[in-house]
Amino acid sequence: MSDEEDYMSDAFLTAAADNDIRPGLLHSHSQKRDHELWKKKGSEREPRKPTAALEAEARNDGLDKPIAEGNKGFAMLSKMGFNPGAGLGRHGQGRVEPIGIEVKTDKQGLGRKTVVLELLERKRKMLEDRRKNALSVEDFRASMSEKAQEKQTNLDLMKSQRVCHTMDQDWGIEEPEEKWFWPEFAREPDEEEDEDESEEEDVDEELMLTPKEKLELLTMYLRRTHYYCIWCGVKYQDDDDIRDCPGPTSGFLLMWMSQKTLSVTNSLDSVLRGEPELYYHQHQLKKQGAS
C-alpha cells in the first residue's frame, strides 16, 4: 500500500481481508458447498460397531464354516465314520447341527440370569393379582394377629436383607438385583435424590409389594442363587443338597418340627406304657424308610 492511500479507505480493508488465512473461515460459495458435501458424506457413513459386536460376528462366521477336509481333526473323524451332513448315531438319525455356544460376557454367577427372570415374572404376577383383588391396608391389618404376623415378617425381611447383602458382597456383586434386597444402610446415599422416571416406577412397584411378598421373593432369591435357607439358617452346597430343607417358608419348618416332636413323644409314651415292642416296631419302620 502506497503512502498516498488513506488508512480509512475501503482499499485498506479489502487488502486486510484478502490476507486473512485463519482456518475454519468459509469465504467463497464453493468452499461452503464443499464443506456441506463433506458433512453430508460423513453423516452417511455407517457408525463404527462396538468391539463386542465385531468379535461376535467373527466368532459366528468361524462357527458357520465347516471343517476343511485337509484338517487333521476332520481326517480323524472320517476314520471314525463321520460323514459331512449326516446325523450322529449308528443310523445317522441324531443331531446334525452342533450344540450352539453361548459366550458369557458378564461376571454374574451361573444360572443367575434364569433366577432373575423367574423372579421378575413372580413379581409381575404378584402385582397383577394385587391390582385385581384391590386389597387395602385396612383389610390387611384387620386383627391383632395379623399385626403380630406383619411385625414378625418385617423382622424376617430385615434379617434376609442383611444376609443377602453379605452373600452378594462375597460374590463381588456391587448392586442388588432389587433395591430392597439389601438393607438401607448398604444403599447409595444419593440413590433417592438422583432418580429418573424409570426409577420412580420401580419405587411405586416396591411400595405396592407387602413385606410378606418381599420376603417371599427374597427367600426365593437366596435359595436359588446362594442355596441359603433363612428359616433353617443353613447354607447348602447345591440344588441336591437344599432338597433336604423342609421348605421355603417358616410354615414348612414348623410342620416338620411338630412331626418330629410328635414322633418322639409317641415313642416315649410307648416305652412309659410298657410297650417296648411297639417302640421297636416303629424304630424298625423308620430304618427301613431311611434305607
Strand order of the largest sheet: 1-2
Main β-sheet description? 2 strands, antiparallel
**Order of H and E elements:** HHHHHHHHHEEHHH
Radius of gyration, in angstroms, nearest whole number: 36 Å
Shape annotation: flat
Strand content: under 5%
* Strands, total number: 2
Structural class: mainly alpha
Oligomer status: single chain
Question: How much helical structure, as a percent, in the residues?
Answer: 55-70%
Number of helices: 12
Instruction: List the uncertain runs.
Output: none
Intertermini distance? 116 Å
* Overall pLDDT confidence: 74
Write the layout of secondary structure elements.
Blueprint: H1 10-18, H2 29-44, H3 51-64, H4 72-79, H5 112-133, H6 137-140, H7 144-170, H8 197-208, H9 211-225, E1 228-229, E2 234-235, H10 239-242, H11 250-272, H12 276-290
Antiparallel strand pairs: 1-2
Helix pairs in contact: 5-9, 7-9, 11-12
Short description:
The chain is an all-alpha fold and about 290 residues long. It is built from twelve helices and two strands, in the order αααααααααββααα.
Written description of the protein model:
The protein is mainly alpha-helical and 291 residues long. Among the domains are: 112-239, no CATH class; 253-290. It is built from 12 helices and 2 strands, in the order αααααααααββααα. A two-stranded antiparallel sheet has the order 1-2. This is G patch domain-containing protein 11.
What are the key terms here?
mainly alpha, 12 helices
